[in-house]
Amino acid sequence: MSDKPISDYPGSEIDVHWDERLCIHIGECGHAANRLFEADRKPWCVPDEVSRAEVREVCERCPSGALSYTDKSGEPERAPAENTLSLVYNGPLYLTGDLHIEDAAEDMPGTRFRAALCRCGASGNKPFCDNSHLQSGFQDFGAVGEIGPGADGIGGPLEVKRIPNGPLKVEGNLSIRAASGRVAWQGTKAFLCRCGASGSKPFCDGSHKAVGFTDG
């Protein structure tokens, strides 16, 4: 990682910011059907190649929060109306909504709306995913058995805290989508496995104690 983990790409109407600490190279930006991002170009991101609205839309596709923007009109990014946690097949948790992640640094603005959270236990950037699941052999196909007690709504602040050497504690209105895309669980509090060993994924069942999971 470079000494300056955030790269800025200025435009006349809107600036783009890329945070290598959070990027897991999903490629939503590079696969967009426009010239905002081109891998073989220097710089690879040129905001003036597309409209201000297109810049916002492409940045908001980024599931990890690695992409953010400064709109010079003064219009900020707004949280999605619904707080949603999506399980990735053999991969992380994608969280979107009005996010308040305790461990997110002040200079990680994208994580106020979008984040990829580790659930294999091997990330070196906990609580965020760093693609360690690809090497660790983590396997979970993303099925969800429980339906939850129900939520009080669909949006509002969602607090995310990591319990030391234990699960993620999530409080607020939340819908959990299985990897199949099905809305499987709804509630206002969940303890989510991040050691990779739970027998009731995505929820914690205390297995972190047996496997000696640590935050380190």
Strand content: 25-35%
Oligomeric state as shown: single chain
What percentage of residues falls in helices of 4 or more residues? under 10%
- How many strands in all? 10
Shape: globular
Structural class: mainly beta
Instruction: Supply the number of helical segments.
Output: 3
Rg: 18 Å
Largest sheet: 7 strands, mixed
Question: In whole angstroms, how far apart are the ends?
Answer: 18 Å
- Ranges where pLDDT stays below 50 over 5 or more residues in a row are none
Mean pLDDT: 97
Order of SSEs = EEHEEEEEHEEEH
Describe this structure in words.
The chain is 8% helix and 26% strand. The chain has 216 residues and is mainly beta. The strands form two sheets. Strands 4, 5, 6, 7, 8, 9 and 10 form a seven-stranded mixed β-sheet that branches. It is globular, with a radius of gyration of 18 Å.
Draw up the topology in text.
Layout: E1 6-9, E2 14-19, H1 52-59, E3 67-71, E4 84-87, E5 93-96, E6 98-101, E7 114-117, H2 133-136, E8 157-162, E9 168-177, E10 183-192, H3 207-211
Parallel strand pairs: 4-9, 6-8
Antiparallel strand pairs: 1-2, 2-3, 4-5, 5-7, 8-9, 9-10
Question: Briefly, what is this?
Answer:
It contains 3 helices and 10 strands, in the order ββαβββββαβββα. By secondary structure, it is mainly beta. Strands 4, 5, 6, 7, 8, 9 and 10 form a 7-stranded mixed β-sheet that branches.
